[in-house]
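Predict structure. Input: Response regulatory domain-containing protein, 122 residues.
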Amino acid sequence: MATLLLIEDDLMVRATLRQILERAGHVVIEADHGGEGLSKLEQQHIDLMITDIIMPEKEGIETIIEARRRHPQLPIMAISGGGRTRNMDFLEVARQAGADSTMAKPLRAQQLVDEIDQLLRA
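Output follows.
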């Protein structure tokens, strides 16, 4: 069991992902934007961070860069549906910014759980 930080601004997506991750045995800490996520990252032990890219207040690329600077060993997964333009280039930018893994929305539950397990083992 790992403690995962899930940063996602869409309440329905966040609730669905939380349910998937909790069924897989993980503890999920939620945040609805990068600023809140980074604050929670400093307040408690987090084993892995999952962040959306396109969010209000503090977007995912900036969140990844800051989290990587503060916690160099933290496994980070970036997720994105590409926003209104469906531009999936954001995921490549997330990798360049320090994400260890990227996944496009909509996410498949088992693929997500398998990828998280792999990141936690690495």
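The chain has one domain: 3-51+60-121.
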